[in-house]
Write a structure and sequence with these properties.
Rossmann fold; seven-stranded mixed beta sheet; 38% helix; disordered N terminus
Length: 248
């Protein structure tokens, strides 16, 4: 995906599928948060953390469960409403990653889980540096389908014919001028084909197609997947990428 931030209509399209997003998008493996702890040099327990572009709170929930004091930052009204429904005990502020509505030097960690690619790094990096305390960490995380698995590679080819190259791959180059540590983690979840298709329907590229075209894409994909998974069950494989830099 290009380093330029995608159009706002795509970035805010998730609100149309907020409930489905919360239900069907993958969580992050425990090793992702262990990597954040290792690379940041401190435990999550007791850390002051902002999860930016938090959406329905998938990463915020995991951070909270590991003992962090978390605030979510979310620009979209519908996603924010779903967050509050899912996680009523975690505070949420409306805002975006380019202009964090948070106090200077107030946080130990900022996470962008599946959201950094919606920012303009020229704005988001200085904003994050301002909000982090000295020695605090900025962590970027993505879940992407594992292209080393043959059926995933085949699906990616079909998707790119529909939507263009890189449309469902959210990882981007980390900003220059900072020292990053990076780790990739491979894992999978056992789900039904129907569940997988429902997850595909929560991607912004599908949402903005409109109901008729989205239904056509998903029906065609169902037919392809039926040949791979005739019993209706599948292992959905992921590569989770974790990249972390420290504020000087």
């Amino acid at each position: 995906m290009a380093s330029d931030s995608p159009p706002p209509t795509r970035a805010l399209a998730f609100g149309r599928a907020a409930r489905a997003y919360a239900a069907h998008r993958p969580r992050y493996p425990a090793a992702a948060f262990e990597t954040v702890e290792e690379f940041s040099g401190r435990p999550l327990a007791g850390a002051r953390v902002a999860d930016v572009g938090t959406g329905t709170g998938i990463a915020a929930r995991a951070l909270h469960e590991r003992g962090a004091t978390v605030v979510g930052v979310e620009p979209g009204a519908e996603m924010a409403a779903q967050f509050r429904s899912e996680l009523p005990g975690i505070p949420l502020v409306r805002g975006d990653g380019n202009r964090l509505p948070l106090a200077d030097a107030s946080l130990d960690l900022i996470t962008y889980a599946q959201s950094w690619h919606w920012t303009d790094p020229a704005l988001a990096v200085p904003s994050a540096v301002r909000v982090l305390r000295p020695g605090g960490a900025l962590a970027l995380m993505w879940n992407d389908p594992d292209p080393s698995v043959p059926w995933v590679a085949d699906q990616r080819t079909r998707i790119e014919k529909w939507f263009g190259p890189g449309c469902f791959i959210s990882d981007v180059d980390t900003p220059a001028g900072l020292s990053w540590r990076k780790r990739t983690l491979r894992w999978s979840r056992r789900i039904t084909v129907d569940f997988h298709l429902a997850k595909l329907a929560t991607h912004s590229a599908v949402i903005v197609l409109g109901e008729s075209e989205a239904s056509a894409f998903l029906a065609a994909e169902r037919a392809h997947l039926a040949r791979h998974f005739p019993d209706g069950w599948m292992d959905e494989p992921y590569v989770t990428t974790v990249t972390v830099t420290l504020r000087p």
